[in-house]
Amino acid sequence: MPVTTDGQGQALEAPELPTHPRKRRMASLLIFLASCLVYLNTLHNGLVYDDIQIIRGNPVMEDPWDVTGIFGGIYRLGSTSVGINYRPLTVWSLALNYRFNQVMGRPGDDPALYHLVNLLLHAVTACLFYRLLLLLNIPSWPSCAASLLFAVHPLLTEAVAGVVGRAEIFAALFGLWFVIFHLQKRHPLACALALLFSVWGKESGLTFLGLAFAADVLFFPWDRKRSLRSYGAYAALLAVWLWVRSLALEGHPVFWAFVDNPMPGDFLSPERLFTCARIHLHYLRMYLVPVGLSSDYSYNQVPVIWDPANPYVLGAAALLSAAGVTAWKARKFHRVIPFAVLGYMILFSVTSNILFRIGSTAERFLYSPSLMMCLLLAYGAWLLRRRWGRAVDVAGVAVLAAFGFLTGARNETWRTEMSFYQEQVRSAPGSAKAYYNRGTQYAKEGHDREAVADYEKALEIFPLYSEPYYNLGNALSRLNADPEKIIEAYRGAIHGDPGHINARNNLALLLIKLGRRAEAAPLVDELERIDPGNPNLPSLRMGLRGQGQKKQ
Q1: CA 521 to CA 19: how far, in whole Å?
Q2: What are phi and psi of 301, to 5 degrees?
Q3: pLDDT per position as a tens digit, 256-310
Q4: CATH level 3 topology of 417-543
């Protein structure tokens, strides 16, 4: 096994290395309990945002043994993500939660069990991380510190407190299991199955294959024969997975809304890289000072950057260069540093928006990359401890306690739908979607005047956002507002989305009620062209001759 050394090539002593199984078990128990403790208050939270879209009203949840529906279908998170995600393990686990709730005499969407499972999976992931670091012969203090930091860091709350963040946890949990099996030289089939479970949790789990390769290169003598056999098995399994995934997603459109991610989609687009520079500098700052966390990075909270001389771009370039130089210089005597730096880049490669544009930007995507960042921070603290002694221990405990407190406080964001959207607006005041989401929740709770104000704010930020226009029209209608304002709202929805069927239907109905049938007739004709099977068409045609139609 490799030995970590200091700058002079001398072996670093690691008296705290838990060679005795009892010490390892005690450290693992501490990590497990810390993980559970900071997320204990999530058990009282509800289902919010994406949780509702995928759990409530989803027929797949009704039968966890419907293999065809779960392993042969798509993972749906609303209309803006249809056709791009295939996560059967995550869906299956949610369906099992749903059925177990019913067996226990509770509603299938009762949230407590979902949150409990997320909490336990996160705790197991933190313990597996500790196990991996010990396998790499990283001393006990940084190994335990890194795992505890990962367990309690506030930046991970979105992945753990949000039920659908389970996809991130599964990818990391089974990804770590895969790397551990690989380093233990288990049978390639066992390793490949662990990797398969990781990508079944979320597609980004495939990045752990790169992490295993980095561990091989940096920590162990290269065994060409074994490596070819092992990586060949992994590649074959991933090829089968990609084939099955393509069959499951065949015929489903790939569509990402501009409001979710306004960055250009061209390959290695400079504007996207510049914008990512700003976002990732923000992420890196939050690892050290985790305040200002947000569940929303959509338009226009983080404006697209077009100028290569932007301070964020220059700062990111300088930081990247410094990290590369430091990792290169440390490659012989502190291999943990290049491993953590390279591992962070590998684990973030798929979800960072750098190599290619994905559907959104979110803090939950940091779940797996945070493993490496926590390792880098803990290892740096350990090196300082060798100089400053126990003072670092005291500071480390204080930091962990503070981070745990912030995590517990952050968990309250997911308590109710309204608390979630209120915090979303507070943390992302430049986001049109944040105001739209809160407005929709206000409308859902019967507060149409507040909803109107939020819809108008969303449209002030993004004037081509069709859904706030449509919902604004509905809210104004319920408030018996000036018909011209309602008409303007529906026309705005159609202008932003020419295929908006419900907006056309409601506008046509309103015009018919106002006796403006000449204006309504082209809308009905266009509705018939767009959606010839629309069940409202017959009554709309009758309405043009004096009868009405129900609003959508």
Answers
A1: 81
A2: -65, -40
A3: 789 999 998 888 889 999 999 999 999 999 999 999 999 999 999 999 999 999 9
A4: 1.25.40
Where along the chain do its domains lie?
A: 21-411, 417-543
Tokens encoding 147: 């795992």
Q: Cα–chain-centroid distance for residue 197?
A: 18
Residue 427 exposure: Cα atoms within 13 Å on the Cβ side: 18
Q: How does pLDDT run across 460-470, given as a tens digit for each residue?
A: 999 999 999 99
Residues 6+ apart with CB under 8 A from 147: 31, 126, 127, 129, 130, 133, 374
> Measured between alpha carbons, how far is 337 from 342 in angstroms, rounded to an integer?
8
- Please tell me whether residue 105 adopts helix, strand or coil conformation: coil
Bridge partner residues of 11 (DSSP): 5
Say whether the peptide bond before residue 300 is cis (omega within 30 degrees of 0). Answer: yes
- Burial of 394: CB neighbours in 10 Å, binned 0-12, 13-18, 19+: exposed
How far, in Å, are 51, 134, 410 from residue 205 at the CA level? 21, 22, 26
**DSSP per-residue letters across 378-445:** HHHHHHHHHHHTHHHHHHHHHHHHHHHHHHHHHHGGGSSHHHHHHHHHHH-TT-HHHHHHHHHHHHHT
Could you give the angle at which helices 88-103 and 166-183 cross, rounded to 10 degrees?
A: 120
Tally of CB atoms within 10 A around 455: 31
Calpha distance 133→305 (Å, rounded): 38
List pLDDT tens digits, range 9-39: 333 333 344 557 888 899 999 999 999 999 9
181 pLDDT exceeds 70?
yes
Cα–Cα distance measured from residue 440 to residue 450, given in angstroms and rounded to the nearest whole number: 10
